[in-house]
Design brief:
Blueprint lengths: L15 E6 L7 E6 L4 H6 L2 E4 L6 H4 L1
Antiparallel strand pairs: 1-2, 2-3
Protein name: DUF7511 domain-containing protein
Pfam family, one: DUF7511
Organism: Halorubrum trueperi
């Protein structure tokens, strides 16, 4: 098991990706997470939002 990163070891440039789970008859969920998470990040370094709670980059431009 990998050890958690201390705040001094984290960077704002760690690559992230967004995964959208589409559910038939239910609200879709977008989750942003590290591309290659360590064991701790796999459980803690992500955020999810339901459809209607986020905008596409195209909409913001």
């Amino acid at each position: 098991m990998s050890r958690p990163k201390s705040p001094s070891e984290t960077t704002d440039s760690e690559p992230l990706t967004a995964t959208i789970e589409r559910y038939e008859g239910d609200i879709d969920v977008c989750t942003i997470h590290p591309i290659e998470p360590n064991d701790d990040e796999r459980l803690t370094a992500w955020i999810s939002a339901e459809t209607g709670s986020f905008l596409s980059v195209r909409e913001l431009r």
